[in-house]
């Protein structure tokens, strides 16, 4: 087989193409590796973001429950007025008992 035979030329051409494909595959594998690393990092960031959102939701739910409890309670000034009125009534009753 000489260097100019048709089969030799085809084999040489195929060898060049295979080498090109191999180098392309190596480049693609490198890019895929980089993308996998980037995806792993972004997945971890998404997990962190959703964990923080869950914490915020819990805090907001606790605040909502606290505000509902505060709405059901009487305000401090009402308790102060009730205490003063009760003390006044007790003093009047004690005063009436002492006079009798």
Average pLDDT works out at 84
Count of helical regions: 2
Counted beta strands = 0
Largest sheet: none
| Radius of gyration, whole Å | 43 Å
Order of helices and strands: HH
Poorly predicted regions: none
Judging from the principal axes of the Cα atoms, what is the shape? rod-shaped
Report how far apart the termini are.
142 Å
Share of helical residues = over 70%
Q: In oligomeric terms, what are we looking at?
A: single chain
Beta-strand portion reads: under 5%
Structural class: mainly alpha
Topology:
Blueprint: H1 6-72, H2 76-99
Word description of this protein:
It is a single chain. Helix content is 91%, strand content 0%. It contains 2 helices and no strands. It starts with 5 loop residues before the first helix and ends with a helix. The mean pLDDT is 84.
Keywords, please?
100 residues; mainly alpha; 2 helices; 91% helix
In brief, what are we looking at here?
It contains two helices and no strands.
């Amino acid at each position: 087989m000489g260097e100019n035979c048709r089969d030799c030329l085809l084999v040489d051409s195929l060898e060049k193409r295979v080498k090109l494909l191999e180098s392309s595959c190596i480049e693609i594998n490198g890019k895929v590796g980089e993308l996998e690393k980037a995806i792993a990092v972004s997945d971890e960031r998404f997990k962190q973001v959703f964990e923080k959102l869950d914490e915020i939701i819990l805090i907001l739910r606790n605040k909502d429950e606290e505000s509902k409890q505060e709405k059901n309670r009487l305000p401090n000034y009402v308790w102060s007025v009730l205490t003063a009125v009760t003390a006044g009534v007790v003093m009047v009753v004690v005063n009436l008992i002492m006079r009798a």
